[in-house]
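User: New here, please read:
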Amino acid sequence: MGTLLLGESAFPFVSSGSLDRIGLMANQQEVRRTVYRYRGHVQGVGFRVNAIQQARGLQVVGFVRNEPDGDVLMDVQGPRKEVEELAKRVQSSMSLKINEVLIDQRDPLPDREGFKIRY
């Protein structure tokens, strides 16, 4: 797990991408699962809803949730470039609230659908 200093709910992902559909892209792009832990003033500021909005148009699945310690966890899976694009969008849109991002690469999970807020 590396550290970069960067500064089930009602929100279904807009495109109905599932791992089955994303799996079809595996021939073209590597499917990646990355867990981002955002630290800073990231709760109570619309972070999760913003992450859902930033995921629009991207073929990603997973969730974003508040953690008891005040962090926000975003577990996202999809083609590598799509996962990286979501992280870039979230970082750009919430940069004033983020003090630190912990990034952990994980093995992809089967049968995931949508990108949602998890409570």
In short: Confidence is low (pLDDT under 50) at residues 1-28.
